[in-house]
Amino acid sequence: MIWLTLLLMACITFATRYLLMEPRLPIRLNTAAQRFLSFSSPAVLTAIAAPIIFVREQQLQLSGDNIYLWAALVAIATAYLSRNTLLTAATSMTVFFTLKLITNH
Amino acid sequence: MRATQHDRAGAALRGALAALPLCFAVVPWGLLTGSLAIESGLSPAQGQAMSLLVFAGAAQLVAMGLIQAGAGLGSILLTTFFISSRHLLYSMIYRRFTADQPRRWRLGLGFLLTDELFALTSQRRGDFDRWYALGVGLTFYLAWNITTFIGLVAGQMIPDLSSLGLDFAIAATFIALVVPTVRSKAALATVITAMAAAVLCELYRIEGGIIIAALSAMTVGLLLSSASAGERRP
């Protein structure tokens, strides 16, 4: 069952990457579809990241004890100021693991 | 005029070098993917095969979470499709670059078309170099599979690897990717909608949370951007 899942997932990811490159496929995206898809990246990435930051053990964690929240705020500030992916990831992960060590979570 | 062997190797090498800094950002991801594979009950061979065949960080991590939670095949595949849907746009742009290429190049670059490859090659208008793109793509493919392998080995030795907080690497990378793209009210509303909907779905254990959150956020973005496009018309 896992092998089947893997193979079908591979088909899906390859299809989304290759399909519109295929010259024999006359599909073109209209402006509305392109605009809709232009929001796909921020929508999907935020939808994956938000529960990691805000939810611990099925509970909303908005308190100061939530080190994910603090480190995420550092990431947002760094990304906003530097617009640099690598610097943002490195800075916020350093803050995260330092907080983790200090608070001994 | 055909490029010489030397030019090709040079272009591929330049691509590989351009990809290196971003490979470092992929390290915690690969480790997490490998260790989560073990934790969610995949065999090491299955964990490696996933990175070799699927080659999509976000989709793999989310799928393993779903496998671990006992989700059905349909919901895993649908979620995979939605997570991968952004590649449809990349593919559309790449159509222009690869229209004159032989089929094996289209298939090969299509397989390697990740966020990173797209970001590093789509800016260079007019002078798309397939060897440069291949250098970038293969470097990421290698980095992804090597770090997955290390994660698989570490995951078997250190059982609690994923409790170390490597999942924050996902959030950090995505914040780094999303924040610079928020340049309009529509984009900001998209992000806020996705955030609220995803958190609500997680809290109330609603299946397909990522699909619901992404679709509603994309709809909000589309509606708001259409509205502001309409206002600008005379």
Mean pLDDT of chain B: 90
The outline of chain A comes out as elongated
Give the beta-strand count of chain A: 2
Q: How are the strands of the biggest sheet of chain A laid out side by side?
A: 1-2
- The share of residues in extended strands of chain B comes to under 5%
Report low-confidence residues of chain A grouped into runs of 5 or more.
none
Greatest contact between two chains: A-B, 69 and 92 residues
The helix/strand order of chain B is HHHHHHHHHHH
Query: What separation lies between the terminal Cα atoms of chain B?
Result: 49 Å
Helix content of chain B: over 70%
Percent range of helical residues of chain A = over 70%
Descriptive notes:
The complex is a heterodimer of chains A (about 100) and B (about 230). Chain A has about 100 residues and is mainly alpha-helical. Chain A has one domain (about 1-105). Chain A has helices at about 1-20, 30-40, 40-55, 65-80, 85-105; strands at about 55, 60. Chain A has a two-stranded antiparallel sheet. In chain A, helix 4 packs antiparallel against helix 5. Chain A is elongated and about 60 Å long. Chain B is mostly helical and about 230 residues long. Chain B folds into 2 domains: about 5-165, no CATH class; about 180-234. In chain B, about 80% of the residues lie in helices and about 0% in strands. Chain B has helices spanning about 5-40, 45-55, 55-70, 75-85, 85-100, 105-110, 115-120, 130-155, 165-180, 185-205, 210-230. In chain B, helix 2 runs antiparallel to helix 8. The longest helix of chain B is centred in the N-terminal third of the chain and has 35 residues, at about 5-40. Chain B is globular, with a radius of gyration of 19 Å. The N and C termini of chain B lie far apart (about 50 Å). Chains A and B meet through helix 1, helix 2, helix 3, strand 2 and helix 4 of A and helix 1, helix 2, helix 3, helix 4 and helix 5 of B.
